[in-house]
Design the sequence.
């Protein structure tokens, strides 16, 4: 008796390619947000100092932010991304089951847009708190994305391509880090 494979498990369709590419595109953003914070450190610290000095009121000359506070704010700005990812990862299973993988990824994009808006407007609004909150929100997006993308790609991929297509998530993350640098 010959072993026959179904046609559906053998073919790579344009729909599959588009679906995997679209899902993995979010992983590129994940990697980008990991790496992007390091290069502009001095610019962000300068912005924090300007905001700090603008907020001082009274008749005295505004004093620059002390180095310990600046280091604390900078460290929080970097680390809050991971905290957001950790917190949101606990919601991953519930979200994936409640909305389904595809809808959950679509809804998760709300976090990406919200985080981007907060970070983008933080200097205009003279608020380093907005940048820190934006990093937390984009971290939450990445925490959910880091579970949903491989889950979705694994479920839509033909069995023989599951491992190959599953590695695209990691490839997109490291590519995003490279682009950010």
Sequence:
């Amino acid at each position: 008796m010959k072993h026959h494979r179904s046609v559906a498990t053998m073919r790579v369709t344009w729909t599959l390619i588009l679906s995997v590419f679209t899902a993995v595109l979010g992983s590129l953003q994940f990697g980008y947000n990991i790496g992007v914070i390091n290069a502009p450190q001095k610019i962000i610290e300068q912005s924090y100092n300007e905001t700090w000095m603008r907020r001082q009121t009274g008749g005295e000359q505004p004093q620059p932010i002390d180095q310990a506070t600046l280091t604390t704010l900078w460290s929080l700005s970097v680390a809050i991304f991971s905290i957001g990812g950790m917190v949101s990862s606990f919601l991953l299973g519930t979200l994936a089951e409640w909305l389904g993988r595809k809808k959950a990824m679509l809804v998760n994009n709300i976090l990406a847009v919200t985080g981007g808006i907060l970070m983008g407007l933080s200097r205009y609004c003279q608020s380093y708190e907005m940048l820190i909150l934006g990093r937390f929100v984009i971290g939450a997006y990445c925490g959910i994305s880091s579970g949903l993308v491989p889950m979705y790609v694994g479920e839509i991929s033909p069995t023989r391509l599951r491992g190959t297509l599953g590695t695209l998530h990691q490839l997109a993350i490291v590519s995003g880090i490279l682009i950010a640098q």
